[in-house]
Each structure stands twice: as C-alpha cells, then as structure tokens.
Design brief:
- The protein is an alpha/beta fold.
- The protein contains nine helices and eight strands.
- Helix 3 packs parallel to helix 4 and helix 4 crosses helix 5.
- The protein starts with a helix and ends in a 7-residue tail after the last helix.
- Bound molecules: pyridoxal-5'-phosphate.
Length: 235
Amino acid sequence: MSVKENIERVRASIAEAASKAGRNPGDVRLVAVSKFHPASAVLEAVAAGQTLFGENRVQEAAAKFDEVRAGGVDADLHIIGSLQRNKVKEAVRVASCIESLDRIELADEMEKQCAKIGKTVDALLEVHTGEESKSGFRSEDEVRGMLSAFASGRYPHVVPRGFMTMAPNTDDEGLVRASFSCLRLLRDRMASEFPSLSLEELSMGMSGDYGIAIEEGATIVRIGTAIFGERDYSK
Ligand SMILES: *Cc1c(COP(=O)(O)O)cnc(C)c1O
C-alpha cells in the first residue's frame, strides 16, 4: 500500500471512530509520525494532503524538515520524543509544538531559546499514565507545579495547550483505555484549576490504539507505522 492509500485509510478510520463516539471528526488532528523515514516519504504524505508531522529525534527532524521546506513545502512539525536540554535550541527552531515537555527545566530552556529567536512555540505536558512508559510527569503535583509556572507568566514564548501520553504497549485493552481516560480526567481537573490557560489538547493514540484514544477524547493522534510502514531501526 502506498503512503497515500494508508493516509486515506487512516483518515477514514479516524472519522469513523470519532462519529461512533459521537464526536466531530474535525476535532481529531492527525500527526503523521515520519521518524526513520526519509524526506521523500514526507513529501508523499504532503502530496496526499497531510501537513502535520511528528518526529522524536531532533537532529533527524531538523535535517529532514529543512530539506522538505527548502523545496518550498510548508510542513508543520511537532517534536514528540523526550528532549535533552542541549537539543532544545534546534527543536524550537524546527518545530511549532513540543509534545514531550516533561520537566520544568525543559520549559526554562524552551523559554530561553525561543526568546532568543523571537518565536513562540506550543507545548503539551507529557504525562506518565501507564507502567511501561518511561517518560512524562509522574504525579499530579508535578503537573500542577508546571502549570502554576505557566499561569504565573514565567514563559511568555511557550504556550501550554494540553497533554500527551503513551499508553502501555499491551493487548490488554482495559489498561490502554485506563491510561487514556486517566489523561482526560487529569486534563479536566487542570483545566478547571487553571482557567487562565487553555488546555484542550489531548495527544494520545498511536497506530495500534488510536481508535480507543479517540473514544476517550483524543484531539491529536500520532500515527507512524500505519502510514509509513515498519521502521528500519538498523539505519
Ligand atoms: C513513534 C511514536 C509514535 C508512532 O508510533 P506508531 O506505532 O508507529 O504509530 C507515536 N508517539 C510517539 C511518542 C512515538 O515515539
């Protein structure tokens, strides 16, 4: 199957899952995760109407999307992988949103680097909701501390938009669903505790579990394999 056919199939099943859940299909955005795939694959997706991409390694993302954009293509990029402080400068240059904000020091560095280049980026707070994932804020108090810093105006160049999580990699649908609903409930509590922030985004769901994520309220799904095929990690 071609990238184009895959995108059409994924879009149709996103729409179907949304409708089934009584939601508007337009309320779920698709991030096409192009990590480990070349710029040519990104361009195939662009030709199929896809404009939003996700990458988890900053250097790979920068090289690939500089190439894509040099060709005049206007592709939007989210960074979705855990981010080291020394990669933040390049990350905020190349992306419009960092979905993997998982500690205060990272927000401090994002603010510093964004201020330098006069750019504002969006951020999602990554939350650890399932036993198997390693990254993300671990407790509600840590999340609250991060959001308090945002609400106090400490980060004029970083705009929090909501939350991101990865469900455990398991066939147990109950565990996956629990992870997603945990994120939604956290979002609901934080949105009411911090009315000055707009925290509507829930980035959750990957190739294997996006149907469940949409039922649980995902506004962003991050899909790689179902669009671009298996990744070759030996490269
Ligand atoms: C790789 C990755 C995805 C996409 O995973 P697939 O199973 O290939 O759809 C989604 N989110 C994150 C954070 C990733 O690292």
